Amino acid sequence: MEIRTVFVVLWTTIVLLKLAIAARLPLFVDEAFYWLEGQHPAFAYSDLPGLTAWLIRIGTEVFGDGLLAVRLPFIVISALVPWLVVRLTAREFDPQTAWLSGCAALLLPLLGSLGVMALPDAMLALATVLCLDAGVRLLRGVTHGGALLLALGLSLGALSHYRFIAVIGVGIVALLAIAKGREALRDPRVWIAIATGAAAWIPLLVWNVDNAEAGLRFQMVDRHPWALHADGWQFIVIQAVMVTPLLFAALLIAAWRLRRAPDDAARFLAISGGLMVLGFFALGFVADTERASFHWPLPGYLALLPLVGFVLMAWPRWLRIATWATLALGFVGVVGYYAAVSTPEVRERSAGLKWYPSNFAGWDTLADAVREELAAMPADTVLVADNFKIGAELGFALGDPRIRVLDHPLNRHHGRAPQLQLWHLQLNDRAELAGRPVLLVTGANDVKFSALLQRYQTICARMGALPVSRVVNADRGAQRFILSRLDADPQPADGDCVTPALAYVDQPLAGARVDAPFEVRGWAVKDGSGIASIAVTLNSAPVAQAQYGAANSWIVEQFLAGDSRDPAGQNIGFTATVDPTALAPGRHWLGLEIKGNDGSIEQWAEKPIEVAPAR
């Protein structure tokens, strides 16, 4: 089978695979917020320029409100990129090499999975390829077509993401390094194209001027420590895994060998790609390490893909086979992850594991519970979300882009707080609701466990009460939400505000192997009312009543920092003995049923244990 046919078959298969996954994969929290932005049309937003939100709005207006409608424009955009890589490579170098580069573009995990989620990286990749194409055209001589292509690429990039600034900077340096590039930069048509691209930044600049540079400060200052740290060395390992080791090596070799090539096009691409990858490697020693950044160097790999065929063709056959095999495995691994995450059974099985996909999980379950609660409440009830994640996901699920959101560290941590304030969606005080009843949805996993009690107390101070009307434990409680019905005219509380319970099982640990019988030990607190009783559950069914009231001063004074207002004081420990002899050996789910003195009943998050066979 000739290489062109391989490319076409791969491209068709991958596009169909993306469509299938995109139609089932739950909305990632960032996608949900971009959907929310699309429901509030503007030229720019606090976290991004406007193009991502516009594309989502177009998709939903044309194709409806489903998951696939949100993502379809991004699948189309990502499907164009490999063809553009083939076209650029064939025109500048060799048709046979072009199809190799195209196949690499299709299977490169970072690029091949684009479009499965509605994220700005798809348009950022398209804008990068257009600018690279324009750059190599300009090296042969400035034409109106080349200048127009440059203007288009620069404009799309400016409307996509702040990170496109890196593509512009590296592109200018690469042109300045080549004599024909310096000559092109003296042509007024190129500067008209650059001016057009610069004009596309105006909406974002205007937004920042009008909002105290909140977006710029978040992207360039607040989210980065700007202090040396050793984590930058992880870049090499992470990129080798995400690109696959042999292709990563081939791309770097291409950049090094062709940085001084006599062919201006090859030299331009090698310098552009090499500087981009090297720049993000250096940035890794001073930049943000808390959020995902493994995809940042993708524009650099796009520049190097047209050159990788020269390296691969020179390698021995066994090494080429190994490169394509590892590349295919990498692609299957990334796409397989999305396919797994889109399956409810897999999400539940992964509860309690480090890789549990919390940003994809639990939203449908939560939305169903919210619908049921709202149906039982007055028609003028106001739905209030604890943070932007819950507000955006419920907004998409319920078709409501006006859900009020409380101030939360997550809103600021992700640069969304200024936008929520501009939309008048941030709720600062219960008095703003003019005496209407409230259904409050609080996320129990959205702050560190050690800070959860303080979060509950903060909500109490703002909302006046935090009764537990319903607990939603998605995937055995790996995603946990507290639903609270608040009356229209809340009465002043007698004593401390009653909060949801906090509990922890110290023994057995998650994943532990237990023999029959075994002891369960832990602690639990509940501000305001205290705890009436605790039952230990296996697979959601009560199996033992715990003895509650043992002293645990370290938890109260150190872990909870003395903030607990549970009437039990330090006597918050519990123990129970469970005899699971009636259960089949294997995996079971250990949990708690906590009854408060206020009458509330809370099912605590479950964790897996392994019951050993009877001896």
Automatic annotation (TrEMBL):
Keyword annotations: Cell membrane, Glycosyltransferase, Membrane, Transferase, Transmembrane, Transmembrane helix
Signal peptide region: none
Localization per Swiss-Prot or TrEMBL: Cell membrane
Recorded superkingdom: Bacteria
Domain (Glycosyltransferase RgtA/B/C/D-like) ranges: 49-207
Membrane topology classification: Multi-pass membrane protein
Record-annotated membrane-spanning stretches: 68-86, 98-119, 147-178, 190-209, 233-256, 268-286, 298-315, 322-340
Annotated protein name in UniProt: 4-amino-4-deoxy-L-arabinose transferase-like glycosyltransferase
